[in-house]
ABC-type glutathione-S-conjugate transporter
Amino acid sequence: MEELCSVSGLDPLWDWNLTWYTSRPDLTQCFQHTVLVWFPCVYLWTCSPLYLLYLQLRQHRGVIPLSKLCCSKTVKTQCLFLVSGLTLVSLVSLTLVSGLTLVLAVVIIQVDRMKGSRSSILLFLFWTLLVLCSLVPLKVNIDLVVQGHRRPLQAFSVTCLNLLLEFMRDKNAEMWKGFLFATFLFLLSCLQSLFHHHYMFHCFTVGMRLKTAVMGLVYRKCLLLSNSARRQCTLGEIINLVSADTQKLMDFVVYLNCLWVTPIEITLCFYFLWQLLGPAALAGIITVILIFPLNGFIAKVRSKLQVQMKFMDSRIKLMNEILNGMKILKFYAWEEAFLRRVGVLRDGELDALKRSQILHSVSLASFNSSSFLIALSVFGVYVLMDERNVLDAQKIFVSVALINILKTPLSQLPFAMSTTMQAVVSLRRLGNFLYQDELKPDNVERLPHNGDSVVIEGGSFSWTNDGLPCLQRINMKVKTGFLVAVVGHVGSGKSSLLSAMLGEMERRSGFISIKGSVAYIPQQAWIQNTSLKDNILFGGERKESWYHRVLEACALLPDLDILPAGDSTEIGEKGLNLSGGQKQRVSLARAVYRRSDVYLLDDPLSAVDAHVGQHIFDRVIGPRGLLKDKTRVLVTHGLSFLSKADLILVMEEGHVSEMGSYMELMERRGAFAKLIHTFSGNQRRGSSTPRDKSEKSVEVNINKTADQDLDAEDAGKLTEADKAHTGRVKLQMYREYFRTVGLTFIMTIIFLCAFQQAASLAYNYWLSLWADEPTVNGTQSDHGLKLSVFAALGFTQGMAMFGTTLAIALGGIVASRHLHADLLNSVLRSQMSFFEVTPSGNLLNRFSKEIDAIDCMIPDGLKMMLGYLFKLLEICIILLLATPFTGLVFYVASSCQLRRLEAVSRSPIYSHFNETVQGASVIRAFGEQRRFILHADHRIDSNQEAYFPRFIATRWLAVNLEFLGNVLVLAAAILSVRGRDELSPGIVGLAVTHSLQVTGILSWIVRSWTDVENNIVSVERVKEYDSTPKEAAWTLEGSLLPAEWPTTGNIQFEDFGLQYRKGLDWALNDITISIQDREKVGIVGRTGAGKSSLALGIFRILEAAKGRIIIDGINIADIGLHDLRSRITIIPQDPVLFSGSLRMNLDPFDTSSDEDLWKALELAHLSSFVSALPQKLNHHCCEGGENLSLGQRQLLCLARALLRKTRILLLDEATAAVDLKTDQLIQSTIRAQFDGCTILTIAHRLNTIMDYTRVVVMDRGSIAETDSPPQLLHLQGHFYQMCVEAGLA
């Protein structure tokens, strides 16, 4: 380089006299024209290959059109090329290098455009370096600075501080040097901020991508889980995985680099300390070595306390079951029992969290006190080693600055270790989930279109790999186009046979094959939360003529007239605004529309009456139906259809006892023939109306009237999407949170924070006094006293810090306990209408993610925010003492609106997961996994679209805020330089040392305040449901209700009227009827007639709009809801079981003896089944009772009714899912055991009520006629017409 300069006629490369030892510093011409020109060029040529490779490997984003901006950048770069040629004409080689570099910049601009990249960090840094290198007089050492990173830049800052303090001691030094050092401090701090936040941006981006990928992975796994794995991995656990565990993995990415960068930073800091204080630095290393094992032990203990997650899984699982079975809870008045169950799980969760937080507080206090402990050990050893070792301002505050650099990694390390530990636990949980058994693709062999449609040879199937086979010795061949009927008693294996054909069961032995595509109609219809049309099309293309034929064949056209927006009407979760029959017919229409090769129908006709059932059989399933050329396997209890089947399978205890055509089986005179002879005379069609009796049918009908002025889209809308508030979080939310924390905790926290920072201020000021003490004969006196005071103040601060963090953690747990209890009470006390319009994903979001944020995120944010705010206050006091003219500009803006949008977009993810898990078998049967995966990915992406701008906004704010902090550093340094004649080196060192911490402190204040502001949104969202419409009180104080009420069971309706919402048409109107004790009353009517509305009125699920209901002389509106609902009993249409033991499902309050339970099971014809179970009454029921057949679940509901022993019983079509023999047994049990009770039956099979005392015929919300069945037949009115259509008259 020297030779190049001399050949070109320039001065030497470097000249100290020209650059440093002068009052007007400058750089040599050679340095300006070589180093400062080549440095940006070398950077671009070095990094461009890696950058171009990155663009090549990155996903292509499309070509950006050639814009004016791109053209102007290209032209200006070419102009710079020409200018460089003219400027450096004397140095041909330099001209060539710089010119080619600018050409390379033009190429990169065009490549960026072609690859869809709108901005290039490579070119941004290149232009920045080019500009900086052109500012020759002020940028002497810029080549060293720009190569640094965050921590090396801090080391350079310490070097500048050292030079500044040396300048303060040297009264003869030129003033410009002081300003130069102050400027370097400012520039280095700015670069540190830019590098740090660019790093944080990439960390968050990687973390977000990891979170998205894991959520997608969990969803894909859900579609592959085997039946045994599905029973172990509950929906609550899955929701927890995608809400809490994925977030912990994302947090881990942010702190990951702390684990390996920290040792490097510690090494560098102690190297500089050794240079400054010599062997005394070893004392600081020993202190650090002692701190790490302590916190490692704490982290290990905390990892064992992660049972909190297990409690949380169980709580979310239970909450999901509660939300799905809310109507049953209200019918049975079981809310308080389930409140206690949730409370026990919540207490266990918070107890584990409390113990973990205590240990975390110890860890935080030890790490945050590490800077003091290192300073104490280093300074103590230094002054005690040799009395001639003097601690002056330069040594003390340069050492303190180095230790403060060390403090950042040491203070972040507990968070890094805690996050790592939580991430390891989450990874283990995710691993356990992803390792669960999957359905084997070879369970069923798929064959091309030739041969028999379904073949099973020697088949043996079980639900689990190690369980007993549920199906054995299955041998069958089904020819293409055959109609196969499968019959048998409850629990005989009919539904299991269809599951085996779908590949849902484990094939233990034998062979099974299916030819062509499959469509599946489950016994309990699975309906999506979308429009009726989309439920039927199920991702297929709409073909109008075929679509209309399917609707007509499935008897859905009359329902389109009832629904507010026709087939565009939104169907609620699980089809909540459809009746049972409507849901089953939609499920059937979905399958028919697909035109599959093989149809597996699991008793779809049980949900409709015989009139509609005959229509569906004739038009869809039968020999002349739409599916006449398809292979159909039909599970049925309807004997009237069997004669038209090509093949009949009779199932008995998991094997095929008989098989053949109808005539063949009748000729054998076996069990099948006996069954036909026994029941063929008794089986009649049940009613002429579709069983679509559900109150929801009434609701959609009256909604049509109310919404007639709306367009079709709005009229068909049912569920309410999660809404985001706007503006800042209201101060009321902060007041609400701190109110639940309690005044005692708040005052304690504020006092401890102030006391801790006062102790910190005191020991730092003590150091400045120590530094300013003059030396006598090269020594200082009273080292012991100085060290003792310093140690006392430091230990006091450490204890106060531990108390602060512990108080915040415990206060957060107290607040979380209250907020969760309030949310749970608000939800359980809400009216049923609230659950009909609120997707379960919205509620699960509150109980999982939002409660988790209140548990952990808000207290952690408060710890950091309060700590750094009080630290900032301490710095301000020090700076005002040292340089009174320094002011502080502080600004914080929250991103809470983006947080709200992110929270709102998260609810649909949970709803979709919920829906998918429940309908996984249907999705797999139809082969729609790919479409549902894409739908899930879209919802996850929508959630991340709200999350990404949030942390970008945070980074932008932090950079701007830290710039203000850097201005503060500059102001403190310049004012110190100007006032060096009045200020002591000690106070200057104290001021500048603390001002250097401002940028980091402001960064953490931004982060912690934003976290608190964002997470306080969780409080806002949890408190949203405080204002939902609530039911009446569960119990009334001072109620004089007799203990044995009702004693007779008299029911009187007096001018009773019911509306689903105020302003809508009457669901029931002018109902006046008196039902005497022990009377048996059947309630019949067509769809929307108001049959179930009567039941809702009796149970006060809906409150009376006019009139009243009197039971045994007491107006039911004058007593508590639980007093009413616990004294009457309903056997519902949909049997709902909860995860837990059979005992809990029968008697959640645990008030009945074992003898009573066994007696109820015996009367419900379940005692033999339960006796055969290994754990008998303690047998664990899976979520939703999936390990029991639908018929067995219905019998358990009968057992519940037998246990309650009330004087009033209401049956809501309770025997639809059982075979004829079991139905006959149930009817006889009801007649015998409830002989002294008043019975109201919403009838499905008219033959079951023909011997009733009275029949009430409902029509359009009013009583059309009522009398005994013989008398009504004689009148030849509505009831007579129904009986004629049903073949009973």
Q: What stands out?
A: The radius of gyration is 39 Å. DSSP finds 48 helices and 22 strands in the chain. Residues 245 and 426 are 5 Å apart (CA to CA). The first strand starts at residue 445 and ends at 447.
